[in-house]
Write the structure tokens for this entry.
Amino acid sequence: RRRRARRAAAGATVTRFAEGGSRPRWSKAVSRGPPSATSGTSALLPINEEDEAVEGSGRCFRVKYQMGIGIRDRPSTDPRWRTGSELKFGEVFEVVQEVRKGGRRYFELLDGRGWIFDWAEVEGERMELLELAAELYTVNFPDGISGIVWSSDTTMRFCKVKEFASGADEMGLRQAGIREEDYLVMIDQDPVVGMPMAKVLERVWASRGQQPGQGTFYKVVTDGPYGIGVRAEPDKDGPRTGQDLIRGTIFEVDEIVEEKGKPTYLHLADDAGWVFDMRPVEPESDTVMNLDEVEPGCTCTMWRGSAEDLAETIGLKFKQDGKDGRPFTITVLEEGQPIQRVPVEPGANLRKSLVDAGFQIYQDFNEVLNCGAQSLCGTCVLAVLEGDDALTAKSVNEKRAMSSNPPNYRLSCNIDIYGDVAVRIRPQGVKYGGPTA
């Protein structure tokens, strides 16, 4: 049977208790490293009884020696044990463990390439080879993420702690180890780095059981990280559209098809196609779950360091490079002005690219009163004329904010560019719908 999707009635809240009383909203997770971190070493060394071994604890170092450091296959400075690989000057890397012996510290690389050491003697002088670059750490939120005001850089790729919502929140969160300017890397096992801020906030809200809008919302909860493929029709064996919803994705549904003995099919509200819930036929096979059913609580993996080092350390690529390294082009139409073209790198933020090129994207008093790309004003509106499929898809909140406008009207701070695109800045008849943060 088919039915229109609607918001279910609010259920009872879930309260969690630790032994002996109420559990605080924030507490440090057992692990201090990223939840998915693994190592080729099953246990901490030491090699000899006099050696001391400690966990890497999510620490990341930077090579400060201009000549780089040769990697060894064991904690040693002996050149006989060189692997043939090296860390170059400025390279940032994470360590899984540290062995201290003979006045030196030896670090095992998390990526399994081998070992490096902290200092060497150069022309009779001690030369420090490394410096601490950053730290990854994990914090447990038993009732979901709260108490933090989030912000982003102008590219909208990195979500970080701007401030705490209240004095009480600050006290608890600082005790858990969180600081202003720390970046959010993962929620549970799902990376959020490189994801538009509006999409990250949907996951933040979902972690505490909060819906991002008034419709019916689901979350992808597959065991594997790759999520589920979108189908062109309500049939799990039907043709795929080429779009996938990765694990952790929050999406809105506007139609539900239920038939006894078959999966439940959910039509995406953005008309992108259908996904399915396997639980009616395989109760233990979780694919998607209504947000009303999701139990609050999560862990957050945070990064204390620069965004540039974070991107380099995890090998972050924002999407495919342009053909043969060629930059993409924004074709800009502006009332009373000749057509102009702006070259941009793949993954560049649309708003930032236009502002950096000298374009005024705001209208009237919003030229002064805009939020500066913090997703708080909803006034950086432009019309996408060509290349919509080469831009970041609309988030639930952007759809809501722009619902009274033509479908090609977009908030430019929410958009990254993955191909050639044509836009009209300061389009006519905009109806502002508020923030997306």
Residues 383 and 406 are 9 Å apart (CA to CA).
